[in-house]
Write a structure and sequence with these properties.
The complex is a heterodimer of chains A (532) and B (297). Chain A is of the alpha+beta class and 532 residues long. Chain A starts with a helix and ends with a strand. In chain A, helix 14 runs antiparallel to helix 15. Mean pLDDT of chain A is 90; it is low at 1-26. Chain A has helices at residues 2-22, 49-55, 105-118, 153-156, 177-182, 230-239, 250-257, 302-311, 314-321, 351-360, 381-394, 406-414, 432-439, 460-471, 475-492, and strands spanning 29-34, 64-65, 71-72, 76-83, 86-91, 131-138, 141-146, 193-198, 203-208, 221-226, 244-245, 262-277, 286-287, 326-328, 368-374, 398-404, 420-426, 495-508, 512-513, 528-529. Chain A has 15 helices and 20 strands. In chain A, strand 2 and strand 3 form a beta hairpin. With 297 residues, chain B is mainly α. Chain B starts with 10 loop residues before the first helix and ends in a 6-residue tail after the last helix. Classes of the chains: A alpha+beta (532), B mainly alpha (297).
Chain lengths: 532, 297
């Protein structure tokens, strides 16, 4: 309550200053309030979302992704596999860096090769891990040699930011990169904006680059303010201190919808909430009602898993818990992603049948389980968890709900301490090898898959399909493999997808139109001035 | 006149007759009693068991006061984000808050009193050691200490009580020490020490009873403080499990809906908490006035 009063007071104070500066009619200035900011101005320092979100204003990735995360030509115009371990990339001609120099294959090679030297703890090496060697054919053609067939290489390159080989030459070791980039000296990209200044956890100030290859941005000056507290960011928007904000919470969304000065923009996110059911013979957090031990892990019985699926009322989850900001999910990726299947049936809600299935499986009185979820990671995660607890209890599975902090949840989940647990998974690359390869494939170090399969789910067919898909360079065949793997995984119901989350931006109605992106990035170039 | 006839002179009767003089304190005591009864009989009074997940329905979530839900009864105070009837949740929440406040207060009282009296009776190095420790802790904000402890111990009722006791025993120790060291200097204790009475007997029969009035006052105030502290911790998300909300957590769950006009989720539990704490404090204040010899007529 106190904090709220403080932010209201803050809002009032900011409101005053907002109207004062607003009278200057500086139409081409844009101020964005973001929840998270970058860790460095070196785009290769971190693989976290906020880093890429900020970097994309200054630098271009080699391969572009559209609003729905599907691949589009960017700095690379086209790409195709020449043989099992070579990809040919054709580059766009006439692209200029901020310092006026030309973009060529040399800069791509330089960028790929500097990554291992400058990356921070959340490593950007994942984007170039398959690259064995980079061969420059001419200024605008290059061959990337990989360590074996790398079907998803273009997807890896959507976050391969290209820096100027000239400007960053002396700032490409762990010691020199921060100094060169954070001062702006080496932070020379081909992106729509030039870096003016940046303070860690503070403002990132950008200025329009007039020779941008897509054409100049609508904004002469852009300031990205890092305001991590949701209520403060909202207060700043209402006060006119910022023009756009990301990550509006579902509770605030309804309040904003009735505000005449503010427009909200809703987009599907890449995040799907998945319930995960432990498949080991012994599972720790399930017991008979009253505390007795069960003879076996009930989640190994497909009827129990189906009962749990049928007990979930996804429409209510979306409508009530998320206040409409989501869609019911029937698979681990949103519609239209590479490998999402259209053949998977829509989820059903049938508590009667669920009770019947539990009885058939030998649990006429149900059983008791501890359900674990994050409560502070994604919008609505804790509330969805409580909602699941209600729905399971109603079909006879007494559920103790533990909606806890992500800092406690993820380490314990990795130690496999949970039996039934739910968290969001974002398909950040837009294709299934990232999601199914990490979650549905059996844990296997050798093929580098199943790293996040914490329930020891094992389906040999899925494993085979995923491995075949990872090596298949023909996109249509690969898509078919992934779709079949998705169908089989969802049919087994060890992973039960619940909802696809939506993300909300809000902006000053008279000033901006925001184009929602599935990767949740807030890119100033694509924010359009409102038509009056 | 037998001694029974002079009942008005018995300390309890005197106390009560003086307590009755203050109307406000009397009303406050009445309110505390009502709240106690409501909390104890919550399972029979409340239309819904808010801790039973299978009895809740998300279809009833965030409904305004007066809404008739799927249970067929009126939600007089509305419902929260999980479809809990707020009136029921407040009744159960009062119970949870009182229970934790009283248990933490009682344990704090016992531990603190022991430390204070031992320090006062033993004197010398023991006194210095114990009381400087207590002083050190008193210089620390109780909320901060409780927060750190909750972060270290994890969530749960036992952990919460431990954190509250650790944050509060020092107040009891200070009070007990003050009262006991004043008594310690008096002649009757000196006289008792000259006899072969055991130390324990002197402490329990002479020192402790005389330090009691001050401790009772501190105890009432500290129960109210423990309840407020528990609400603070729950508000910050470090209290009881989400499915068994105390008042602080009910308030915290509702705060994010304040901007969208769904005030009742936070406001009603807030009012309940304020009434509870204010009435306990009023009762405590009045007891202090009565027991304070300086204000005696």
């Amino acid at each position: 309550m106190k904090r709220m009063a403080a932010s209201l007071a803050l809002a009032a104070a900011l409101g005053l200053s907002g109207t004062l500066s607003g009278t200057g009619a500086i139409a081409q200035e844009l101020t964005i309030g973001v929840r998270g900011g970058p860790e460095s101005m070196d785009p290769h320092y971190s693989a976290l979302g906020p880093q890429a979100d900020a970097a994309k204003n200054i630098f271009d990735p080699l391969v572009w992704t559209g609003d729905d995360l599907q691949l589009e030509p960017g700095l690379a115009l086209s790409w195709e596999p020449l043989d099992d371990d070579t990809w040919e990339f054709k580059l766009r001609e006439g692209v200029k860096f901020h310092d006026g120099s030309d973009f060529t294959a040399e800069d791509v090679k330089f960028s790929i090769e500097r990554i291992p030297n400058v990356t921070g703890p959340t490593t950007t090496e994942i984007y170039v891990r398959r690259v064995a060697d980079v061969e420059i054919i001419d200024d605008y053609t290059m061959h990337i040699h990989t360590d074996g067939p790398a079907a998803t290489l273009p997807y890896d390159f959507v976050r391969l930011f290209i820096v100027s080989s000239e400007a960053a030459k002396d700032h490409s070791t762990a010691e020199t990169s921060a100094e060169g980039f954070n001062s702006g000296k080496a932070a020379v990209g081909t992106g729509p904006f030039k870096l003016v200044s940046w303070e860690p956890k503070g403002d990132l100030v950008l200025e329009r680059f007039d020779d941008y290859w897509r054409g100049p941005a609508p904004w002469a000056k852009v300031t990205r303010k890092e305001i991590s507290d949701d209520a403060s960011r909202l207060a700043a928007l209402k006060a006119g201190d910022i023009d756009v904000m990301n990550y509006v919470s579902s509770a605030d969304y309804l309040a904003l919808a009735s505000d005449p000065d503010i427009e909200t923009f809703i987009g599907d996110s890449v995040y799907v909430m998945n319930l995960q059911l432990d498949q080991r013979d012994e599972t720790p957090k399930v017991r008979a009602k009253g505390g007795g031990k069960l003879d076996k892990n009930p989640f190994q019985d497909p009827r129990v898993r189906e009962a749990i699926d049928l007990a979930i009322d996804r429409d209510t989850m979306v409508e009530i818990v998320l206040e409409g900001l989501g869609t019911p999910a029937n698979q681990m990726m949103p519609d239209g992603f590479f490998g999402s299947s259209k053949k998977i049936p829509a989820p059903q809600y049938d508590p009667e049948k669920a009770r019947q299935l539990l009885a058939d499986a030998g649990y006429p009185d149900g059983f008791e389980m501890d359900l674990y979820c994050t409560s502070d990671r994604l919008p609505g995660d804790g509330a969805i968890c409580e909602g699941l607890g209600q729905m399971f209890s109603q079909v006879g599975i007494d559920t103790n709900v533990n909606a806890i902090s992500k800092s406690v949840y993820f380490p314990a989940q990795a130690r496999k301490e949970y039996s039934a647990f739910m968290n969001g998974w974002g398909t950040l690359t837009g294709e299934a090898s990232y999601t199914l390869g990490s979650l549905a494939h059996s844990p296997n170090e050798e093929v580098k898959m199943g790293a996040f399969n914490r329930i020891e789910y094992h389906n040999p067919d899925v494993d085979k399909l995923m491995q075949a898909g990872a090596k298949e360079l023909d996109a249509d065949k690969r898509r078919a493999y992934f779709e079949e793997a998705m169908e089989k995984t969802m049919a087994d119901r060890a992973y039960i997808s619940i909802v696809v989350l939506q993300t909300v931006w809000a902006g000053n109605k008279d000033k901006v139109v925001v184009m929602p992106r599935a990767d949740e990035e807030t890119l100033a170039y694509f924010i359009q001035p409102a038509k009056k | 006149m037998s001694w029974r006839g002079s009942g008005a002179r018995s300390p309890l009767r005197t106390f009560w007759s003086r307590f009755r003089e203050d109307r406000i304190a009397l009303v406050a005591l009445f309110v505390v009693m009502i709240i106690l009864l409501l909390a104890i009989f919550a399972p029979w009074i409340a239309p819904q068991d808010p801790y039973d997940l299978s009895g809740l329905s998300l279809r009833d979530a965030r409904r305004p006061p007066g809404f008739v839900g799927s249970g067929g009864y009126v939600h007089w105070l509305g419902t929260d984000a999980q479809g809990r009837d707020l009136w029921s949740a407040i009744l159960y929440g009062l119970g949870a808050s009182l229970q934790i406040g009283v248990i933490a207060g009682a344990i704090g009282l016992v531990i603190g009193t022991m430390i204070g009296i031992v320090a006062a009776y033993a004197g010398g190095r023991v006194e210095t050691l114990l009381m400087r420790l207590v002083d050190l802790q008193l210089s620390f904000p109780a909320v901060l200490l409780a927060l750190v402890l909750m972060a270290l111990l994890g969530q749960g009722k036992a952990q919460l009580i431990t954190a509250l006791v650790a944050a509060q025993y020092a107040y009891f120790a200070r009070t007990a020490f003050g009262a006991a060291s004043a008594e310690r200097a008096k002649d009757y204790i000196e006289a008792a020490m000259a006899t072969p009475l055991s130390n324990a007997r002197i402490v329990f029969r002479h020192l402790l009873p005389n330090a009691m009035p001050a401790l009772i006052v501190v105890a009432t105030v500290q129960i109210a403080n423990a309840i407020a502290l528990e609400a603070t911790l729950s508000f910050l998300g470090l209290g009881l499990p989400v499915t068994e909300p105390s008042l602080g957590m009910l308030i915290s769950n509702g705060v994010k809906y304040m901007m969208s006009g769904r005030y009742w989720i936070s406001v009603y539990p807030g009012i309940a908490l304020i009434i509870l704490i204010v009435s306990i404090n009023l009762v405590g204040d009045h007891i202090r006035d009565i027991l304070n010899p300086r204000l005696a007529r």
